Amino acid sequence: xxxxxxxxxxxxxxxxxxxxxxxxxxxxxxxxxxxxxxxxxxxxxxxxxxxxxxxxxxxxxxxxxxxxxxxxxxxxxxxxxxxxxxxxxxxxxxxxxxxxxxxxxxxxxxxxxxxxxxxxxxxxxxxxxxxxxxxxxxxxxxxxxxxxxxxxxxxxxxxxxxxxxxxxxxxxxxxxxxxxxxxxxxxxxxxxxxxxxxxxxxxxxxxxxxxxxxxxxxxxxxxxxxxxxxxxxxxxxxxxxxxxxxxxxxxxxxxxxxxxxxxxxxxxxxxxxxxxxxxxxxxxxxxxxxxxxxxxxxxxxxxxxxxxxxxxxxxxxxxxxxxxxxxxxxxxxxxxxxxxxxxxxxxxxxxxxxxxxxxxxxxxxxxxxxxxxxxxxxxxxxxxxxxxxxxxxxxxxxxxxxxxxxxxxxxxxxxxxxxxxxxxxxxx
Length: 428
Hints:
Layout (H helix, E strand, L loop, with lengths): L2 E5 L6 E9 L3 H9 L9 E7 L2 E11 L10 E8 L1 H12 L4 E3 L4 H8 L5 H12 L3 H11 L2 H25 L10 H30 L1 E7 L5 H9 L17 E7 L2 E7 L9 H16 L2 E6 L14 E4 L11 E2 L8 H15 L9 H22 L5 H18 L6 H9 L6
Parallel strand pairs: 1-6, 7-9, 7-10, 10-11, 11-12
Antiparallel strand pairs: 1-2, 2-5, 3-4, 4-5, 8-9
Helix pairs in contact: 4-5, 6-7, 6-12, 7-11, 11-12
């Protein structure tokens, strides 16, 4: 395998920059610049030089093969973060025979190939790098810690036991083996099936934590939706005007709300209109509001036309700075009155929906769990139903095990790897 290197920290001026080297010649490459390598996992201050020219003073950390992130020899050079310093050290490494610049995600791919991470952990690492909110951080860290792999291993163990019992009765029917293994096999299948069903039920919530929720502000024209969006965003994200129908397209603002990633949507005012362009805006508003996780109905003196609230939607009186006091939530985007109460209500409504979040977080995970659940349902029917064929049930169990193995990247994922690692930056 080639020895690779790359800047592992963010580009640009910084106090510290970290260059990572991984592969069979990592220690030798570090010695060529630093003169010597500190003992494993102990940082040592070294002067880096190339062709007699001093490049920098750096902390050098060495990790032996089998005890590093990639599973290979790894050296980290903690430099001063000047752009010129980083460039000089990268040039010096590139001039060493046998070294090359790493490709996007190549360090993490080597960690997968060397058994340091499973595929679900790789995806958890990608999510952790992209995490914007506290909920996303916690969820990604849970996946990175190997929780999905640990659960998959438990399910796989039960199913292999069930398959072994079935195949013993098939292959050794005349031998001294249990004659009726159906109760134990069905119990094992039932236990795994229940656990898989819980994951499938909670997938929507965990996917929303990862991707973010959408909250649409809907109401009649000139109800104060754009002013409210600007107040929530803390900036002029949308044009406001006293003339009704100003908003023609959906305006989106991404926010961190109580640790959840939330996109607030300002939509066109809902009304019947003969204006073609405004009509397109109204149709887009209805479509996005239907797909939104939560709608905030901003009420004025009249009901909101064309769209009715769903259970869990919030009904809020707008322009709370004028007019009489009203019962329930009331908000003013102009003065900020009621904003805290509104954001608390939105946060509480969305937090309730994350209470049953699953361990799995991606559509690939859901598809693998669903295939396993389907195979187990078929196996259970073969065992418990009249005229069932044990050989078919055993094959169903093997299909379920294979689906769970694909969950952590043991089988059937080669075609996905390039796509997954393309999302990583160089140096990770």
